[in-house]
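Sample entry (139 residues):
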Amino acid sequence: MWTVGHSNHDVEAFLTLVQRHQVAHLMDIRSHPYSRYAPHFNRDELQASIEACGIRYAFLGSALGGRPRRDDQLDADGHALYDRMATEPIFSDAIDRILRGASEHRIALLCSCGQPHECHRRLLVGKVLCDRGAELRHI
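Predicted structure, serialized as tokens:
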């Protein structure tokens, strides 16, 4: 399974990266799939661009986003407590969906961060997927 951050790429460069890795399904796991700085990565625009390339798009940010929905998922300094977030039933259901899809299709998890070691796509979602037997590779 792949992960990718859109970072500050232009849309053509991003699409080339995803196509080069033969991604069939792009799973958007951003909590808020909008960008003031790169509007071509706003949810609707990105979905249209991705699907025009023959790649399927799904938004899973409401289940797998890195921003907590409740105060008890934050520490005293306001940092996300990923271990608590990972216990939510909606999170587990989305992980199951990704694992089922990955058994049949090449999937990439999308977030905005260009550095996977700093991003919830590795620190939260990726950790749980690896704990469940998945192997992650970063584009």
